[in-house]
């Protein structure tokens, strides 16, 4: 008899009249809010303005959801396009199935578009949002708990996850891999925050640290899972993906630290700064006008002075001539 285990919810959806409220969707939404909230605080601390992270997230989140779903459908195509399956189910994202690799890759494209529109460097934005993404994943993994999916091998540990019988699953006690990954992601977020404060990571290195740390945990957690997956040389596809992405992230950290050491001093041009610039230009223009007027006035003053001198010289000369003529007449 099992005295301790983690129960699974009897259902992953609650109907509020005709409106279904799905636990998986709620976890994704809450995770997005956590990522934007923390990212906004970190962005402001680095010299950015409030609201910028949310503005760019408007681009990044939809792209990320599409990318995550595409990765899942492509790598698990047999669930939707094999004989007896309904391909329409590929669009039912609320039933679960988001690949983090595709979500990050295509989400980065959306973030790049948003950053270009705001004139912000993407690496700086990625550094600010990195711990928030890890926390979003930690929250989002609880969506798998609501759907009773992505669990590990059978176990009798006191924290085993109880799974009930259902489509494509057998009742029993299994490793709660969703919980393992959730806790790991929280640790990754704390690691990135600490390392960023300690070493002043910049130019995308905080984001690369998040990627490397997540991949290190995803590798062993993925190895424990028993859900259907493609295998290459005896390892699950996602394990190979984690190894490859881990190596790329570490390589980026090493090269970036040598090529672009330190951290960006300015991550966003604030509106106050741009407002001061036209005023300064106006002052300079006004000064230039005054200088031009003074310059134009100089020749006029000089001309008046020269005229006065000439008049005085003529008067003096006439006076001398008159005096001379007077003296000559008296001598005769």
Strands, count: 6
Strand proportion, as a percent range, falls in 5-15%
Radius of gyration, CA atoms, in whole angstroms: 37 Å
* Shape estimate: globular
Number of domains: 2
For the biggest β-sheet, the strand order reads 1-2
Low-confidence stretches: 274-282, 300-305, 322-332
Main sheet record: 2 strands, antiparallel
Class from helix and strand fractions? mainly alpha
Task: Tell me what you see in this structure.
The protein contains ten helices and six strands. The protein starts with 12 loop residues before the first strand and ends with a helix. The protein is 67% helix and 5% strand. The protein has a two-stranded antiparallel ribbon with strand order 1-2. A two-stranded antiparallel sheet has the order 3-4. A two-stranded antiparallel sheet has the order 5-6. A hairpin with a 2-residue loop joins strand 1 (13-16) and strand 2. The radius of gyration is 37 Å and the shape is globular. It has 332 residues and is mainly α. It folds into two domains: 13-269, no CATH class; 276-332.
């Amino acid at each position: 008899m099992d005295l301790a285990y983690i129960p699974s919810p009897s259902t992953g959806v609650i109907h509020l009249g005709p409106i279904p409220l799905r636990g998986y969707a709620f976890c994704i939404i809450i995770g997005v809010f956590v990522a934007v909230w923390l990212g906004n605080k970190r962005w402001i601390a680095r010299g950015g303005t409030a609201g910028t992270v949310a503005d760019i997230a408007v681009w990044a989140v939809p792209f990320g959801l599409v990318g995550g779903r595409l990765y899942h459908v492509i790598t698990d195509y047999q669930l939707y396009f094999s004989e007896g399956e309904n391909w329409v189910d590929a669009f039912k994202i609320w039933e679960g199935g988001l690949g983090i690799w595709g979500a990050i890759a295509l989400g980065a494209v959306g973030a790049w578009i948003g950053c270009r529109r705001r004139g912000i460097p993407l690496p700086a934005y990625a550094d600010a949002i990195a711990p928030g993404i890890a926390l979003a994943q930690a929250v989002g993994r609880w969506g798998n708990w609501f759907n009773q999916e992505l669990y590990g091998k059978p176990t009798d540990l006191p924290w085993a996850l109880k799974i009930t019988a259902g489509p494509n699953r057998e009742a029993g006690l299994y490793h709660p891999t969703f919980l393992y990954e959730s806790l790991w992601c929280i640790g990754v977020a704390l690691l990135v925050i600490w390392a960023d404060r300690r070493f002043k990571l910049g130019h995308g290195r905080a984001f690369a640290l998040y990627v490397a740390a997540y991949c290190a945990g995803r590798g062993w957690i993925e190895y424990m899972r028993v859900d259907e997956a493609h295998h290459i040389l005896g390892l699950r596809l996602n394990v190979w993906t984690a190894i490859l992405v881990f190596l790329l992230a570490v390589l980026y950290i090493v090269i970036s630290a040598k090529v672009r050491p330190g951290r960006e001093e300015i991550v966003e041009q604030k509106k106050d700064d741009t407002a001061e610039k036209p005023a300064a230009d106006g002052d300079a223009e006004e000064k230039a006008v005054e200088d031009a007027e003074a310059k134009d006035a100089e020749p006029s003053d000089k001309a008046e002075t020269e005229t006065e001198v000439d008049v005085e010289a003529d008067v003096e000369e006439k006076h001398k001539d008159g005096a001379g003529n007077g003296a000559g007449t008296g001598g005769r």
